[in-house]
Specification:
This protein is α/β, with parallel strands linked by helices. It has 2 domains: 167 residues, Rossmann fold (3-Layer(aba) Sandwich); 184 residues, Up-down Bundle (Dehydroquinate synthase-like, alpha domain), CATH 1.20.1090.10. Strands 1-2-9-6-5-3-4 form a 7-stranded mixed sheet, with helices on both faces. Strands 7-8 form a two-stranded antiparallel sheet. α7 crosses α9. It starts with a strand and ends with a helix. InterPro entries: Dehydroquinate_synthase, DHQ_synth_AroB, DHQ_synth_fam, DHQS/DOIS_N, DHQS_C. Catalyzes the conversion of 3-deoxy-D-arabino-heptulosonate 7-phosphate (DAHP) to dehydroquinate (DHQ). Its cofactor is Zn(2+); NAD(+); Co(2+).
Length: 358
């Protein structure tokens, strides 16, 4: 079992984690245990958890619709009401069993219900395992704008069980892979290179790769828990990536992009801007772009799309005093933060992405 022990937010990964979960539940003697799932994890993940690991405990279940479109205050209101109807009190526990939507929203619900109840995250998607599992960010979207409402509070603990990945379609695994590639860009060229061998059908190596990403993110958030500097690097590619994701989410003429699909585009754009503004090596720009475009289908953008995406940048949470702040790279693991980028360079980045030949 892999372990990161903390006062709050300890992370456990591996087949032996369930004994630790049972220890916590027996030790805390919660008045009520409620499991939050979505339609997919209720069907594919909850039976495994119930049968093998929670059979000795009594618990209730709350189910929300699956998908980013339901990561809203309206969904929170329904969950708060159901918690109240179930008689949940301040000594209750909410277990969030799901991907990033469930863990983000569930953490926010728990942090605000009765001014805060305990919660445990059990991420079931690759994206949630390597991203939402560490750092304590909880929240929801505001309309189509990503993660505008939320709090930072670590769960009581996080349990990462690789077997849940078998319940995911390939597209969802590929989405989470983007965040792992981001960890390589911001922290370790060696890790980036090793990720080219990432294969989720190999449970042992998959666990090792996921644990490396968890360690990278944990090191960052431990040094900068409130995002004053270093933690902003975890948003690499997300300034434009989130704007792209939001634009495709709100536009009925566009097919919705998964988070990782949008962030992959955002990282290609960020790498180009980094090369222009901070000297990110040209050879590495070409190599990383080739990698991204070999994994993720190229997304089509017309001029109007780009203009509308740029307009959405003003809602990015890293902005200060009206400035749109980017995280950029001088090289793998060498970052600069709070860099203002003019629209001309952003347009050039989209043109580079559109015209790049593999």
């Amino acid at each position: 079992m892999h372990t990161i022990e903390k006062e709050r937010g300890s992370v456990y990964c591996g087949a032996a984690i369930w004994d630790r979960l049972i220890e916590i539940l027996e030790e805390k003697k919660f008045s009520k245990i409620v499991i939050l799932v979505d339609e997919n994890t209720k069907k594919h993940c909850l039976p495994l958890l119930k049968k093998n690991h929670l059979s000795k405990f009594t618990f209730k279940t709350i189910c929300i619709p699956a998908g980013e479109a339901h990561k809203t205050i309206a969904t929170c209101t329904k969950v708060w009401q159901q918690l109240s109807d179930l008689g949940a009190d301040r000594n209750s526990l909410l277990i969030n069993l799901g991907g990033g939507v469930v863990t983000d929203l569930g953490g926010f619900v728990a942090s605000t219900f009765k001014r805060g109840i305990e919660f445990i995250n059990i991420p079931t998607s690759l994206l949630a395992m390597v991203d939402a599992s560490v750092g304590g960010k909880n929240g929801v979207d505001l309309g189509h704008l990503k993660n505008q409402i939320g709090v930072i509070k670590n769960p009581l603990a996080v349990f990462v069980f690789i077997e849940f990945l078998k319940t995911l379609p390939k597209s969802e695994r590929r989405s989470g892979y983007a965040e792992m590639l981001k960890h390589g860009l911001i922290a370790s060229e060696e890790y980036w290179e090793s990720l080219k061998d990432f294969d989720t059908t190999n449970t042992e190596t998959t666990e090792a790769f996921i644990w490396e990403s968890i360690k990278i993110k944990n090191e960052v958030v431990t040094k900068d828990p409130t995002e004053k500097g270093l933690r902003k690097t975890l948003n690499y590619g997300h300034t434009l990536g989130h704007a792209i994701e939001s634009y495709f989410l709100e536009n009925p003429e566009k097919a919705t992009l998964l988070h990782g699909e949008a962030i992959a585009v955002g990282m290609v754009l960020a790498n180009y801007i980094s090369a222009e503004k901070e000297g990110f090596p040209q050879q590495k720009l070409l190599a990383t772009t080739t990698t991204f475009l070999s994994i993720y289908n190229r997304v089509a953008f017309n001029q109007t799309d780009v203009e509308e995406i740029i307009k959405l940048l003003k809602f990015d949470k890293k902005n200060t005093n009206g400035n749109i702040n980017f995280v950029l790279l001088e090289d793998f693991g060498k970052y600069v933060i709070d860099k203002v980028v003019d629209n001309t360079v952003i347009h050039q980045a989209f043109a580079f992405y559109k015209n790049f030949k593999i």
